[in-house]
Each structure stands twice: as C-alpha cells, then as structure tokens.
Amino acid sequence: MRRRALLASIGTASLAGCLGAAEVAEPQPCEPGNDSLGSLLDAVTTEEPPRTARVRAVVVHVGYRLVLTDGTGWGVLDPERESESLDIERGDCVSAHCYLREGASKMTGVTRLAVHLGDRVTTTDENPAGEPPTMPSPPEALFDMRADGNEAIVLQNVGPASVPAGRLQVRNVSGDRELLDTARWSDLTEKAPGDPVTVGDSLRVDWPGESVLCWRGESGWVETVTDWWTLE
User: Fold this and answer.
1) Residues whose CB falls within 8 Å of the CB of residue 227, separated by 6 or more in sequence, listed in order
2) CB atoms within 10 A of CB 88
3) Which of 17, 33, 79, 229 would disulfide-bridge 56, Cβ 3.0–4.6 Å?
4) What share of the chain is helix, strand, coil (3-state, %, to 5)?
5) Are residue 100 and residue 155 in the same domain, yes or no?
6) Looking at 92, 125, 158, which one is the last position of a domain?
7) How far, CA to CA in Å, does 157 sit from each of 9, 85, 154, 168?
8) 124: how many CB neighbours lie within 10 A of its CB?
9) Are 180 and 223 contained in the same domain?
C-alpha cells in the first residue's frame, strides 16, 4: 500500500441552508433538449464524454448559478455573465448551448454546465406549467473531518440532525480524474440504508484520490456536505 498524505484542508461543512432534493413534478414544464441532463451525467463516466451540449430545462433555483431539471436529472448551469440570471425567474423554461464540466460533474454527482463564451441562456417560455419542482430542506447535520495520521480521514456527524445511512454517499475520483468510485455510508459500515447516522457516528475513508461526502435526495439531487479532500 502506498503511503497516503492528506493534502486538502480539513474543515466542517453543513447541510443547513443548502439546496436539497426536489420532488420532480409530472408532467415536466418543458421537454428536454438535444442532450438530457440525465444522459450527460451518465456520459461523464465514459471514455469520450461530449464536450458540448444543448439543453432545455426548467429553472428550479436562481442565483449566480441556475439549478435546472428536465425530468431526467439535475443540472447546475453557469451563465457567461452573472447579470444574465437577473432576467430569468424560477419556473422559466430555458435553453442553452453549453460545455460539459466533466470533472465537476463526476465529482459532485450533478451535471455541471457552463455557457460558451458569447452565448446566452435563452428563455423559451415563461412559467409554462405553473409551479416548478420544489426544493425541500435537507437534514441540518454537520460533518466534522479530521486526519487519521497520513493514511485516511475520519468523518463524524456532530449534529444536530440524523441522516439515513443510504442518503450519505462518498464520491471518489482517482487516476487523474478518470476513475469514479461511489459508496453509501451503509455500504462502508454495518448500518442498513434506512438506519440513521446519528450524532457521534463516524466513518473512516482511506481511498486515494479526491473524495467528498454528499447527501443524495430521493429525486436524485446530490449536495456535497464536506469539503473535498485528497489522499495519495
């Protein structure tokens, strides 16, 4: 076994106040574009993922980034200019010619896109089908990270809320960001997927490469709940 060095800073991250999973409404407010968000997420694990994509989706959240869904999956879109999002509202159906942020998509478990230089996000229909999917609040749980020598890191729920073990996922990218491994907290411990990860419960992770702990909602939205860390 190679000696592994903890390279990333160790911190504490919170689920509170983060974007959570959304229940995807049927029918979807707008049909997917040439490239669906779900297929793009699958594509990042292939040998030759597409560099560009044309997407069409409903806006679920407006900020300096747009959170989208098209019924097949989720996406986070970076407009070329932050001011672009000022004319876009939650519930709008938008389309965009984007490039796929392969590494970020693979690491976070959500399709990450950015608009090509000179292109814009286009509103194709304003609030076409009423309310878009909602985004309920995730559990208010803090996860502490600490080094276990130079070999691993230990993740611990420091509260106040518990989280089902099957909803917590370690995502790991290694081999110059080529290889993706994932495992639920329940896969790495004796807990069943429905068992709660309560305050004080901990998990030791010694996978080489870049890793992060995520919360995965019922509808497939994935939210990172720790900083990324790197082991060699």
Assistant:
1) 8, 9, 10, 11, 13, 145, 212
2) 18
3) 33
4) 10, 40, 45
5) no
6) 125
7) 18, 35, 10, 11
8) 12
9) yes
**β-pair partners for 169:** 184, 214
Higher pLDDT, 4 or 206: 206
CA distance linking residue 105 with residue 108, whole number of Å: 5
Domain membership flag for residue 134 = no
CATH number at residue 101: 2.40.50.140
Place of tokens 């060699």: 232
Which residues have C-beta within 8 Å of that of residue 212, sequence separation ≥ 6? Answer: 107, 108, 170, 171, 224, 226, 227, 228, 229
pLDDT single digits (tens) 20-61: 334 444 445 578 888 999 999 999 988 888 999 999 999 999
Q: Which domain holds residue 215?
A: 143-231
Nearest one of 155, 160, 157 to 170, comparing CA atoms: 155
| 184 located within any domain | yes
User: pLDDT tens digits for 84-119?
Assistant: 556 788 888 999 999 999 989 999 999 999 987 778
Residues 166 and 192 in one domain: yes
Domain count, the chain: 2
